[in-house]
Amino acid sequence: MSRSIVVGISDLAASRNPDILVTYALGSCVGICLYDDRTGIGGLAHIMLPRSSQFSETNPNRMKYADTAIPDLIKKMQVLGADPGKLTARIAGGAKMFETQGDGPLSSIGDRNVDSVKQILSLLRIPVIVEDTRKNYGRTIYFHLNGGRMEVRSLQNERKGL
Amino acid sequence: MITNYEELSPNHIDVLREIGNIGAGNAASSLATMLDERINISLPLVKISDFNDAIHAMGGAETMTVGVLINYSGEANGMIMFLIEIETAKKLVSHMLKDFDNADEMTELKLSAIKEMGNILGSSYIGSIASLTGLEIHLSIPYVSIDMAGALMSVPIIEFGAIGDKVMFIEESFLIEDAQFASNVVMFAEIDTLTLIMERLGLGL
Fold first, then answer.
1. Which of B86, B152, B163 is opposite residue A97, by nearest beta carbon?
2. Banded pLDDT at B46 (limits 50, 70, 90)
3. Does A56 or B144 have the greater pLDDT score?
4. Could you read off the pLDDT of B73-97 as tens digits, one per residue?
5. C or N terminus of chain A, fewer CB within 10 Å?
6. What is the pLDDT of residue B36?
7. pLDDT over 80 (residue A155)
8. Which residues of B touch A100 (CB under 8 A)?
């Protein structure tokens, strides 16, 4: 029996084949799916900001930032038996939901989230094998741990019908 | 000095609620003038909640929703977003435009009507802050997008997320004749702005 495990905003989870990890309605946030092919162990993190060091929070929620959530996710997968040297990544999200999102430092946050995630994965030598990022629409991810497929759904077709 | 929304006291939240009340009142009279129709807005409910709970309260992460975003800057900085489920939006606009034959369609005209409503609401809320505090605040033009509620909400949530783990939003309903139409406004003020508003109103943080 496969279970569906829902990952919220600034949240993460790891499990094994045949479970499905789901995260809904990524806008400018980024969903990171990590997979160990040999063991069928996978993990999904839904991050909203690039780096914990750039923000003034005194006691940050580590699952909110790419630079803290990714290492935490890998540790969780290791506990289940994944080999951190054998992981691949699939990523989605980082959209720009409005023509402008302001003039402030967070106006291009979708792009910055994607850039940061890719940089961190590259430092950890985890190849990104599937990417569906940026553009201007929301995405839901279904990460199938039976094989590691990342299924992305959006409202693009419904929107055209309006 | 506070650093995030979790630290606001009940008194501070009352102030925000009052800003919401005045804003909603102003919005109702502007809309009534625009539509030449009796329109009321229910007593707005100001809520401060977790990100995931807030999205749930907006009707669910994947619900197709219209979002209108306005940025404000000057002596106060932040953003305000008006959100209304697409099905509610269609009904509300059909009501406004007396277009009952095509109530299931979302035409360009209806979309601009929603955008204008979001604009009126946003400027009414920000206007109430400006008139209560005497701060000079400039508004951007409104930007509209139709997508999953959660994806639209990610924009203000990320702003809140940079300072804490809670989001502030206002639940309100438009009442036209006997019909009721639910909508939400997410109001984000930078922490310096929030501090300044409270100071001006004699409730230094």
1. B152
2. confident
3. B144
4. 999 999 999 999 999 998 888 877 7
5. N
6. 76
7. yes
8. 71, 140, 143
Specify the higher pLDDT residue, A57 or B54.
B54
CA–CA gap between residue B94 and residue A129 (Å, rounded) = 47
In angstroms, the Cα distances linking B35 to B39, B45, B87, B93, B174 are 9, 24, 20, 11, 13
CA atoms within 13 A on the CB side of A155: 27
Catalytic residues of A: 29
Q: Do A98 and B73 touch (CB under 8 A)?
A: no
Q: Say how far apart CA A124 and CA A126 lie, in whole Å.
A: 6
Task: From chain B, pick out residues whose CB is under 8 angstroms from the CB of A136.
Answer: 145
Cβ-nearest to B51 among A9, A97, A159: A9
Which residues are bridge partners to A43 per DSSP?
A14, A34
Residue in B88, B202, B83, B49 with CA at minimum distance from that of residue B151: B83
Q: ∠B98-B104-B109 over CA atoms, to 5°?
A: 55
What's the half-sphere exposure (Cβ side, CA atoms, 13 Å) at A159?
A: 17
User: Distance between CA atoms of A135 and A92, rounded to whole angstroms?
Assistant: 11
Q: How many CB pairs under 8 A join A and B?
A: 120
| Residue-averaged pLDDT of chain A | 93
Does the model's ipTM exceed the 0.90 cut? yes
* Residue B155 to residue A109: CA distance in whole angstroms: 9
What percent of chain A has a predicted confidence (pLDDT) above 90?
82
Evaluate whether A73 touches A21 at the Cβ level (below 8 Å): no
